[in-house]
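Review session, final week

We close the course with one last complete record, chosen because it touches almost every idea we covered. It is Acyl-CoA dehydrogenase, a protein from Caulobacter zeae with 391 residues. Go through it on your own first, then we will talk.
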Amino acid sequence: MSTAAARRLEPSPRLPDLDAVLPGLTQAFAATAGRHDREASFPFANFQALHEAGLLALTAPKRLGGLESDLPTALKVVSAVARGEPATALVLVMQYLFHASVEGRSGWPEHLKQRVIGDAIDHGALINALRVEPDLGTPARGGLPATIARRTPEGWRISGRKIYSTGSSALTWFVVWARSDDAAPLVGGWLVRADSPGVVIEETWDHLGLRASASHDVVFEDVLVPLDHALDPQPPGAPPPYSAVFGTWSSVLTAAIYDAVARSARDWLADFLISRRPANLGASLSTLPRFQEALGEIDGLLLSNRVLLDSAAKGDTGAGESGLVKHLVTENAITVVEKALKLTGNPGLTRANPLERHHRDVLCGRVHTPQADVVLTGAGKLAFASRETQA
């Protein structure tokens, strides 16, 4: 009997009591976040804790042993994790996105679905896509990858270099964006085990923010994978091999990371203003209307974020608006942290305090696809098209 078949005979896994589990994870992750940031070290212990809590297969299909949780539940978990350590949350988001979309990806053979999900459940295995390249940049801007998958009698031979490979040191599975060596090349993802001969991780990640994410270069030197590990190769320009719902999940969960960073910054600011008692004032800074108004402005921005994220997660936003949600939430989060810095001066920029780390981390939100120019241009085009249709 296959492992997946055996799992179907077991009682369905149950979602942990998130209200009981998540606060402890947030606190534990926050306790080591500063050290991982300073050392640019990967938080392996955080993922062991998530595995032990039964949260690494949160969005995986139930028939494969996962919990098949919905987007609001994934949002709740990611937000709590990011409040503690945002690089952990970023890697977790990549895991959740792949697990949630695996059933809709027609190019995935059944046995590979079973293996990837089973590895996550049994061993805490992580998966992520490796897409960005030195010359091409992000594939969201168009172009063909330089990474080549060469068809041979024994399987595919993959050669190339990927950069900004989030979680690289801890991943069990890479989905490598590449093109075949056919006369008319096919473009898509090839599934590669991280421990395959010819895979080399070069520890190049030395970034301003999310320093614990291990987003190193990964080099593929004639790496052999089976023929059926070509998951979804298609002609260039073909529609993506996954549902449009994937875009909403990606935008909501990515934005949630930076909203959570801003909330951590807000809490530190509030505690700082309460505890700071200048001698010439004889009372805490929190008693001054200037600081009360400023914290009210910050809470207003965070309220907007909560409404936007919850609405998008529940499916209440319109078609094509998830990119705008990601953009607005990210910009609000950055504004929150910048306001906190302006209010605190030197203490906010002191490395002994977490606010300067929150500032570096929150700026990374602008990097993720879809980026602001693409989102706003697309929204503008839709608005004009709508008006022209009504005319």
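Two points worth writing down before the exam:
The longest strand covers residues 155-165.
The chain has a mean pLDDT of 93.
Good luck, everyone.
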